[in-house]
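Limitations

Structures in this collection are predictions, not experimental determinations, and the ligand pose is part of the prediction. Treat each record accordingly. The example that follows, with adenosine-5'-triphosphate as the small molecule, is included so readers can see exactly what is and is not provided: the inputs are given verbatim, and the output is the predicted complex.
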Amino acid sequence: MSDRAEDFFAPVRSSLAGIVGLSLLGAVTGVVPFVAVVELARTLLPALDGGAVDERRVWAIVVIAVAALFVGFAAAFTSAMVAHLVDARLQLSLRQRIVRHLQRLPLGWFDTRTSGTVRKLVENDVTALHQLVAHAIQDVVTAIAVPVICTVYLFTVQWQLALAALLPLVFAMVLYVLMMRGGVEKYRQYESAIERLSGATVEFVHGIAVVKRFGQLGRSHRRYRDETRDYVHFIGQWTRDSAAWFSVVEMVTSPVVVLVYLVAVGAWLVSAGTAEPIDVLPGLLLGLGLTGPVVKLGTSGQFLRNATKAQQSLAGFLALPPVPQAASPRVPAGHDVDVEDVSFGYDEEHRVLHDIAVACRPGTVTALVGASGSGKSTLAKLVPRFYDVSQGRVSIGDADVREISSPELYRSVGFVFQDVQLLRTSLRDNIRLSRPDATDDEVERAARAAQIHDRILRFDRGYDAVVGDDANLSGGEAQRVTIARALLADPPILVLDEATAFADPDSEAAIQAALSALAAERTVLVIAHRLHTIVGVDQILVLDGGRGVERGSHTELVAAGGRFARMWADYQANHARSRPEGVHG
Ligand SMILES: Nc1ncnc2c1ncn2[C@@H]1O[C@H](COP(=O)(O)OP(=O)(O)OP(=O)(O)O)[C@@H](O)[C@H]1O
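Predicted complex:
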């Protein structure tokens, strides 16, 4: 385990020691009644020959056995309870750490992750640790302590029989090791087969509409069928390979076989005069219990492997660097957004933006245009610091965005990108998310400005309708709810994806009007896809392959006869039908 992985257990380390102690106590007291039976037999034996029985010793043995039983039950109960309480505390502290860390990660991290990634961390990985703390620790302690105690006792009684009792255990362990040869590799293959199968299943189910539409059902189904067949084949082969070993281990450790074997060894030792008949009894009673717990270690081993993987995955996540925060943060003086000679790459090798410069003033709209993949979204995302620039700087009111505290930055910059996120709560709370103290009137005003108020009123419960429950929204409607959310926060800088803002042709003109009004007091940066929407903006930055190739107003750029003029001519040729007027600064 790495140091960091051990950190997870720091808050509960003393309780874990308690679980180990209680499990040990349970193991010792679990063996005591068996020893008591042997001692009882030894004490009562003289009675068979008419001899005197030491009654005080009999009572002492009975009391000790009963007490051990009670202590054993109490220890098992308490350790299970403590283990579950510790587990609950550990899960809480881990989940809190995960959530705190999620809040400190760069927003860009979420761009390439699905909610499934986060769910796996919070649910599956934390649950894998639950198996370890709540169950595996007790099982492992018992599996080791019980055989050790039994063996020590057996050696004190009759060492030859003790040795004989150990033999099935040693034999089972050797077989187990042989059986597990190459197990790590097999397990890796098993996981990869599962991964491929679930990939094929998801592809088959998700893509079913598309593949049906294009008549490719056969191909998609074939991949699913092939992966299923490979998986079944792999499992079949693995089972066949290990079945013989398993059967032998099962046989060697089965109570009947061990009993018959120990009776035979005991009888031989007695007939040879090496052991007293009474000395065979502990071997029979305790020798039977030696192998069971060790076999159980196999299951606990699986829990341990899962827990180790979960620890690695959680440790990897928690080691992700958070957004660096300035030691002495600056407050922006104004709301000018300046992009100064900015270069950026998602990785070291591939630059996506090269030496871009643009100045966006309050009360103006700046549109970013360019072919798909030219870097519009990437540039826009540098303003709310989804990513940090590789070179140059992005500043707000002359303060580098890297020097502004995250809360201040998010107060200053509102953004609506294409991945619309609504929570499963009321529409009112969805809008109010950006300003929890907003009054109902303010929520309504924002919804009106985003052209979603009338639609909301058509739900039976209006603003109280719950998203995904009694409020089922179209893509465009959901986008307008997020616009309302951004408007309610009333940020002085707004970064918008035009595809998001004007997704719905019916309300396009109305939303454009609302945004134009907004732009009067704000610094607005719009990622433009449809050129007619930006005819009236203050400046257009044309991107090509991550470089700023032209900058100016629509009129200036068309008059210049360069790249934008060509784009505009093409656009007009392809979109001849009339359009509502665009965004104005
Ligand atoms: N999260 C990411 N990780 C790695 N590369 C990315 C990531 N997001 C975008 N890119 C790459 O960066 C380049 C610019 O992409 P970007 O999304 O900024 O372009 P765009 O002009 O907004 O395109 P579109 O109009 O299609 O949205 C593309 O080559 C894209 O593949």
